[in-house]
From TrEMBL:
GO terms for molecular function: DNA-binding transcription factor activity; transcription cis-regulatory region binding. GO terms for biological process: glycine betaine biosynthetic process from choline; negative regulation of DNA-templated transcription. This is HTH-type transcriptional regulator BetI. Residues 31-50 bind DNA. Repressor involved in choline regulation of the bet genes. Pathway: Amine and polyamine biosynthesis; betaine biosynthesis via choline pathway [regulation].
């Protein structure tokens, strides 16, 4: 976590620089020197406020997760509170929103996922994100499905989000948000049909 006193103007600047450098050279090549040069600050700023590259990656992922959370809330606010299908689709749409599928954000997500397997702090962040997604999906699905079925469908939707997202991230053409949402919508309709008719 950044130390108290980190100028707010610098935080987004450093987060953007971190993602840009990861986009260009990957996580292993993203040194404090390259990131600081991209941000136009001295390496000492990063080391002082973030404790180095690891702390900056953590703050970068927290920023991406905050953006995802805000986008999810925005999509849910636009969906009818009584339309479970629309609300689940809103959650799915937030995960494939424009910002989340930008090249620099996608590569940062991939770096984060890979690193989180070996780092307890980043792993904890990943688990929080995973639990939040499942919780939101279950909350909506329990309105029309029995508890066990709601859990099953929530896990299916989450797996499709992650799987389609990962496949798209590794595709040179990137992620196709429309196709992703079509595939998940098809699964969702098949799962909900027996309970909504």
């Amino acid at each position: 976590m950044p130390k108290v006193g980190m100028p707010e103007i610098r935080r987004p600047q450093l987060v953007e620089a971190t993602m840009a450098v990861i986009d260009e050279v990957g996580l292993s090549g993203a040194s404090v020197v390259l990131i600081s040069r991209k941000a136009g600050v001295s390496p000492g700023i990063i080391n002082h406020y973030f404790g180095g590259k690891h702390g900056l990656l953590e703050e970068t992922m927290r920023s991406v997760l905050r953006q995802l959370s805000a986008t999810s809330i925005e999509h849910l606010r636009a969906a009818d509170k009584d339309d479970v299908t629309a609300r689940v689709k809103a959650i799915v749409a937030a995960n494939f929103d424009g910002y989340q599928v930008e090249s620099k954000v996608v590569k940062t997500w991939l770096a984060f996922w890979a690193q989180s397997m070996h780092d307890t702090t980043l792993h904890r962040l990943q688990r929080v994100n995973e639990r939040r997604l499942l919780s939101h999906l279950r909350f909506e699905l329990k309105k029309v499905l029995p508890y066990e079925q709601a859990l099953f469908v929530a896990q299916g939707v989450a797996a499709l989000i992650d799987g389609i997202w990962l496949r798209g991230a590794l595709n040179p053409d990137g992620i196709c948000p429309d196709k992703a949402q079509q595939i998940i919508s098809d699964y969702l309709q098949k799962q909900l049909a027996p309970y909504l008719n």
